[in-house]
């Protein structure tokens, strides 16, 4: 049975597994949001950063990519994703219905934020998000690099995100001013 994974953030530009097919997809009732404090990859316990997560919101739609793991790699892909995405238990692994642009409807492994987890921070004002992203850095590098990569890749695949554009531009302003 094929293994599909819904990508909306870093999985778009760094899936980390062999992708046999990538198709534009829509996940209903969730939106992409910087609502998870990052204490490992893009921040630290002392100075958390922010990473994207899928935050449940009835009526919302999140555009992303459905990524089908190469045949024969399903078990290894799932093990890899669990090690990567469930490092702090802030994400919940779910199998959710995803609508593909070509008309297919599939079930995809999807990592959504646990709103009861201590790392959840939904509803932060955009300015506060920008300030956190501008200064944070973790084991995978600066938080602003994560924002830049995700925003650029969404643009490249034809899924521009106005909120991420605003954050990207504001973070650039903040970091340019700190360097001046």
From TrEMBL:
UniProt keywords, alphabetically: Lyase
**What EC number(s) is this enzyme filed under?**
4.3.2.7
InterPro entries reported in the protein's UniProt record = ChaC, GGCT-like, GGCT-like_sf
Q: Gene Ontology cellular component?
A: cytoplasm
Q: Which Pfam families match?
A: ChaC
BP-aspect Gene Ontology terms: glutathione catabolic process
User: Which top EC class applies here?
Assistant: lyase
Matching PANTHER family: CATION TRANSPORT PROTEIN CHAC-RELATED (PTHR12192), GLUTATHIONE-SPECIFIC GAMMA-GLUTAMYLCYCLOTRANSFERASE 2 (PTHR12192:SF2)
Under what name is this protein listed?
glutathione-specific gamma-glutamylcyclotransferase
């Amino acid at each position: 049975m094929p293994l599909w994974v819904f990508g909306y953030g870093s999985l778009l530009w760094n899936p980390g597994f062999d992708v046999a097919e990538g198709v534009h997809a829509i996940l209903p009732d969730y939106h992409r949001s910087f609502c998870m404090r990052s204490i490992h990859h893009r921040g630290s316990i002392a100075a958390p950063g922010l990473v994207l997560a899928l935050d449940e919101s009835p009526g919302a739609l999140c555009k992303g990519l459905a990524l089908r793991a190469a045949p024969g790699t399903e078990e290894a892909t799932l093990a890899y994703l669990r090690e990567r995405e469930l490092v702090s238990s802030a994400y919940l692994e779910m199998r959710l219905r995803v609508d593909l642009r070509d008309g297919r409807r599939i079930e995809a492994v999807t990592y959504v934020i646990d709103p009861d987890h201590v790392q959840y921070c939904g509803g932060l004002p955009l300015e506060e998000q920008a300030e956190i992203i501008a200064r944070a850095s973790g084991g995978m590098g600066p938080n602003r690099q994560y924002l830049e990569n995700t925003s650029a890749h969404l643009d490249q695949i034809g899924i521009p995100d106005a909120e991420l554009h605003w954050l990207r531009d504001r973070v650039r302003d903040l970091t340019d001013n700190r360097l001046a």
